[in-house]
Amino acid sequence: MNKKYQLILLILVFLAVAGAVTWYLVAQNAAALPVLHPVGTIGEQERWLMIITVLLSAVVVIPVYFLLFIFAWKYRDTNPNAKHTYLPEWKHSRAAEIAWWLVPAIIIFIIAIITWRSSHTLDPYRPIHSSVPDMNIQVVALDWKWLFIYPDLGIASVNQLEFPEKTPLHFHLTADAPMNSFWIPRLGGQIYAMPGMDTQLFLIASSTGSFHGLSANISGNGFAGMNFTAKSDTPEEFSSWVEAVRQSPNHLTLSAYQDLAKPSEYQPVQYFSAVANGLFQDIVMKYMMPGVEKMFEASGTPSMSGMQMTGISSASASSTSRKTASSSGVSSSSAPGSVLETETSVQTGSSSSTTAQTVKPKMKPMNAGMPGMPMNMNE
Amino acid sequence: MNIFSLFGKLSWNVFPTNPIAIGGALTVVLSGVGILLLITFLGRWKWLYREWLTSLDPKRIGVMYIIVSFVMLFRGGVDAIMMRTQQITSVGASHGILSANHFQQVFSAHGSIMIFFVAMGLTFGIINVILPLQIGARDVAFPLLNSMSFWMFFGGAMLLNLSLVLGEFSTAGWLAYPPLSELYYSPGVGVDYWIWSLQIAGIGSLLSGLNFLITIFKMRAKGMTLMKMPVFVWSVLGAMSLVTFAFPILTVTLALLYLDRTIGTHFFTAGAGGNMMMYVNMIWAWGHPEVYILILPAFGVFSEIVPVFSRKRLAGYTSMVLSIFAIVFLSFIVWLHHFFTMGAGADVNAFFGIMTMVIAVPTGVKIFNWIFTMYRGHIRLMTPMLWFMGFVVLFTIGGVTGVLLGVPAADFQLHNSLFLVAHFHTMIVSGVLFGYFAGIMYWFPKIFGFKLNERLGNLSFWCWTIGFMGAFIPLYILGFMGATRRLDHYSTGLGWQPLFIVAGIGVAIIVLGVFFQLLQIIVSIKNRRKNKDTTGDPWDGRTLEWSTSSPAPFYNFAVLPVVKKRDDFWRVKMEREEGKEGEKPVYRPFEMPKNSATGLLIAFFAFLFGFGAVWHLWWLLILGLLGVVITAIVRISNDETHFTVTVEEIEKIESSRSHKQYA
User: Fold this and answer.
1) Interchain pair A101, B361: CB under 8 A
2) What is the pTM of this model?
3) Contact indicator for B186, B525 with CB cutoff of 8 Å
4) ipTM of this predicted complex?
């Protein structure tokens, strides 16, 4: 193929791809392109940020493309004029040199200012200004599902997140599983949910709708099934949903939680009409050092040396699959040595506190079934 | 567990059980056995051992690096095809061809292989082949260490491939974030395979880095001051300084993770005071410089190709050098941009975001300088130049998407989505791979004495470029559609399947491109007499490697060149045109290192060590360690490591070559 036509072909391929992408992005409906059609101020600002950045970059990129193809065309050796234009010793032009250090630097300087400001205004931890008070939601990433606790309402749900529209949502996130990333593309950016950590995120939905939510960080076998529905409701819809949840016979006691925390894939939606007090904090704190020591005392093993010994021997339990390993971790929690009886009051979902019931399950502390602690595996 | 156990974690259950995995295992075993049988059948063992396996000639070591990289590219490519097939077929009620666990092994292996055993292998391969020639040296500073580095790389690759046959590979992704990669969540041997194949290859890379750094500082031809070095050498200098500072971090991180998994320490565990975020910081403190370790030498390759094919000097040499070191410096203070979503706070995120964007400035300067090298040139649009054009077109897209990802608040919406996957593939494929493909085409005649077929090279370029766009542009869109990476299944309503199918077609076109590359090599070998390079300078080159004959003799230069200017060979050619003939060369005897099996042996014992560490065969681990130490002691006790090349030999070799070296 003639070299000249190769250049034209390269330009055509590039234009065709650019055209196809543009057509596709325009032709798709809003729901299919959640990042580009967000519902809510956080997502909208993040989208504008992307658009501005791309436009500013275009100031540098478009000249690059033009120069590349014009030079390749004009100075190709098969061009009859090439002999006249050839300047083999041309190597430097101070003006040009300054231009291509300076122009990109100016563009980057502008983007840097935008970056600095947007990093602060769109900081996930920054509350959203609104006349409506925040709705608190605690998110726990489990193997492999999402648990949503509404601390102010005393209810919880699995893989179903509902909230009233135009209400700032204040998420606290943690994981009782490997690191996950919490993402509702139509509402806005994500944040990691990590064991032993409490991260925060503010989002808001400007209208009603049902959005896809998922985990963006690999967490094991059932990772692809960690989807949830994020539903933005009118206030009436939301109250009736809360009522529906409160009809659920299930209470999220500590033992119910421990059952729930066992690995499961493609978990269906589940509702809990009551939640153990301070459950979220317990889940965060179970990874902390003092808890571990308590556990050692309870199980009667000497602390650090015992840790290493059991660590080594647990390594020999090699061929156990992850599932069996973690379930044995949970079942070890019922081992007699580690039982500490605690009374846990459970807040019911009922709006009037008069009907509040107190469940007194017999259970040991949360940290007994702690993942990340191999010693559980050989009990 | 008994530390004296003879079989460690090995048992009869370690062999794969599902049909696809058995297919993989059989492919590895059969191709391995097939190669061994073929060599035996052809009676080439002695030749192979003498001429290649024990060779300390950096050109041969470089060729071996490139061959291993292509074999691993094949394996990583098969992984890619499996991933695409899974994501096309696993929609709604169907769960595709792979189980979730198998799919996760596949993408973990794909990433690890492509970075450590393809991109790194090509990087070191090209550097080995060309760097000593370009600085007018006969060898690298430490030839034996160089051979050892290669064999460590090979050992790591083999350990990784062994995971197909015995046991399993990691399911925790190519960087194995804890706590997923900790024993509790990954109790099998997969993560240990990952740790030790990277550890062994990584130590090889670290030693290589030091070796080339010292080679550049100590072995340059007389008169070649730093500012007279070719830009490829500068870029290698930059990349190798990165290796020297970054790879120790990787070594430590992997070692700590292994301790966590083996003796129950808690560096990165979820509980007991472990801190997984520390791991993520450490791995990226290595991981980001790693990206530049791969890309800088590729930039260097383009800095050689563009001037030669434009028949013009490189524009803005000083700018090019400055931009390399700006990149080197900045690449160490941007690692946090890989996890803006960890909640580090606005100030920290903004700092790392801005530093990330600042890198775009020196990178942009390099692109402008290459383009202005073409300005008023006499451009031959041959395949290496086409790779360059394709690189600029695609890499610029990668640059824009990179700036986009570098804005923390925008990254919140794009992080870990397929947009991110598309971005880094754009950087690594169009930057690193295209660069090295161009470099292989360009320097092939210097190593083998004949040019590669232009037409097939051209076809492979077009397949790669169009296939690349087909395979990765849809992923950018899928990112906007909210698709995250590493999903082995998704529901129908999301509408992702059509784009995955387009991406699959793109991959098929890339496969066609690889096919043309293989065909190109076969056809070129067949027609080698026709494409023979008799001049030593087939492209009208500018740098020292073109001043010696093709293929370059094992000692590179019969008389070491003396450099007066940048692009010194160009100067010599110009002076020759003006009628100034060089003096007749006067040969003097010199010493070259003898072949040695030490590197091969040390890597073999390191492999045993790694295998023992993976399967908890502590006796094998100790044996491997002892083997390494004893081999090293035996080598150190050997004083007869060099031989003298006499004047008669030089004259014999030089007169048999069609091209006379310039003096």
Assistant:
1) yes
2) 0.90
3) no
4) 0.92
